[in-house]
Amino acid sequence: MKKILVIGAGGQIGTELVLLLESKFGKDAVIASDIKEECPKALSDSKYIPLNILDNDKLTSVVKEEKVTDIYLLAALLSATAEKDPKFAWKLNMEGLFNVLELAKDGLIKKVFWPSSIAVFGPTTPKRDTPQRTIMEPSTVYGISKQAGEQWCAWYHEKHGVDVRSIRYPGLISYSTLPGGGTTDFAVDIFYHAKHNAEYTSFVDDKTMLPMMFMDDAVRATVELMEAPEENIKVHSSYNLGGISFTPEDLKEEIQKHIPDFKINYAPDFRQDIANSWPQSIDDKNAQEDWNWKHEFDLPKLVDVMLKNVDPKLM
Ligand code: AKB
Q1: Alpha-carbon distance 95 to 7, whole Å?
Q2: Nearest Cα to Cα of residue 116 among 94, 89, 149, 140
Q3: Mutation to probe ligand 1, out of 184, 241, 274 (largest number of atoms < 8 A from CB)
Q4: How far is the CA of 107 from the centre of ligand 1 (A)?
Q5: ipTM score over 0.95, yes or no
Q6: What are the residue numbers of the active site?
Q7: Prediction pTM value
Q8: Where is the NAD-dependent epimerase/dehydratase domain (predicted)?
């Protein structure tokens, strides 16, 4: 019987992923876990176990007691936070992954999902339609940890037959849970400010183009990849995933169609350098060919759904 453990379930991806997995496989098949003792509000109807991914003994006992088959490991420090605490970022992002890959290697679980990011690319990577395989010289702590993690995933697959699957997420946009500590967070924050007082100060400049995706597409991609037949999976490091690409100016113009007096100011900070090192758009041909990936949300649809649903009280 399938039993899924989502680690880091209280975060931006985790909350929506747990709900999608429950609707697909039933509530009894999914356990949400995160470092906090109390269950996140959005998951109050879900089975919840507090768990620190660095506590390997507790992780192992939860996996054994609950007869877990699949783990989605989402606990990580994102790009902006990782630059401020490089050692802890490395520890959390790498040790957590090792703990889970070892469980799979020892046959305690069957399948692992681990998120990578466009941060694996760096300033020397081709910026437009960045291919699956290309120059990868990341310049951020987060990117270095994601790139190393990808190679570990490929190594555990190659040497130990571990079924680990991964996606290089672009910036993710959602309204249920606020993102925390990422460079692409401006593309979420902007909606809360647009609804609150029709004004936003962006920490990246007007011309910063980055690959982005609406959360519904991202969680659907995650489950589609995990449920694809094993023989279809040809990339064992991590799949490129494209969605849409836009600048803060593009976003402003689309928001102004709903809120005509919306204003944006620019005050770039250290996150500008991080954004400048990342691709502007992603070629996801491999994901399309191997497991039929196709995104659904374009910019107008994304802006419409976000403005209808964001609650400025969450800010
Ligand atoms: C971040 O900005 O750090 C993340 C990412 C692109 O992985 N959203």
Answers
A1: 14
A2: 149
A3: 184
A4: 31
A5: yes
A6: 142
A7: 0.97
A8: 4-242
